[in-house]
Amino acid sequence: MITLKETDSTSRYLNDWCIERHDEVEPFTMVLADYQSAGKGQRGNSWESEAGKNLTFSFVIYPDFLPAKRQFLISQLISLGIVEALRKYEDNEESGFSVKWPNDIYYQDKKICGMLIETFLQGMNLGRCICGIGINVNQEQFLSDAPNPISLYQIIGKQIERNELLNIVMHEIVSFYDMLQKDEALASAELIKRYTANLYRKEGFHHYKDAEGEFLARFVKVEPDGRLFLEDTEGRMRNYLFKEVQYIV
């Protein structure tokens, strides 16, 4: 693990390091920063994170056993690993944590974790994947105009040891990844099943917005390539790739 007091982006730092060493960096090598000044999320959003309070880190993997068209499996297993880790801090039998498609982690209607997975191809298969993750851990208040952030501290009412959470998160992610390496077909079926079961707003009709405007729809399914299928109130089936539809929260 490389630990930094501050960097603009742990993902950029790690990717540059991999390039310099011609992809001979060990899988799951990690860069962890106390403060990340230019962390990126989906849609180019920045990630607010108070120095020394949260987890901002990136790690590298080389899933070259997977065809490029199956890259959504990586998003699924990381999302599930984080959800499983966060649930260990809950007291309630019914969890408030879920995955908002494609890979934001929510607690009820608020965002606790975001990620950005940068994938580089090796022929027709995946090559290097830089997985950048930000988890709100001990931050007590948020000052940016981000619409709905929440931290683990705000949920459970106490500070926790960040490295402990990081170790739990990575243990869960590595377990899912090992499962995928051992038996891709079996693991793929299990991952999509568990991913679907843990989806945010998987029941009932909710508000969404696409290029045509706002609409009400219910969740139908997520395809192995990550495509989201929704059915609107008029019975019309709509399907979307990443960034083609927004949740109205």
Features:
249 residues, alpha+beta, BirA Bifunctional Protein, domain 2, SH3 type barrels, 2 domains, seven-stranded mixed β-sheet, 12 strands, 27% helix
Please characterize this protein's 3D structure.
The chain is α+β, with helices and mostly antiparallel strands and 249 residues long. It has 5 helices and 12 strands. Helix 4 (162-182) crosses helix 5 (184-197).
Quick summary of this structure?
The chain has 249 residues and is α+β, with helices and mostly antiparallel strands. Helices cover 27% and strands 32% of the residues.
The figure for the number of domains is: 2
CATH architecture of the largest domain: 2-Layer Sandwich
Give the CATH superfamily of the largest domain: Bira Bifunctional Protein, Domain 2
The CATH class of the largest domain: Alpha Beta
Low-pLDDT segments, ≥5 res: none
- At the fold tier of CATH, the topology name of the largest domain is BirA Bifunctional Protein, domain 2
Helix-strand blueprint:
Blueprint: E1 2-7, H1 10-20, E2 30-36, E3 55-61, H2 72-87, E4 97-100, E5 104-107, E6 110-122, E7 125-135, H3 152-156, H4 162-182, H5 184-197, E8 205-210, E9 213-222, E10 228-232, E11 237-240, E12 246-247
Parallel strand pairs: 1-2
Antiparallel strand pairs: 2-3, 3-7, 4-5, 5-6, 6-7, 8-9, 8-12, 9-10, 10-11
Helix pairs in contact: 2-4, 2-5, 4-5
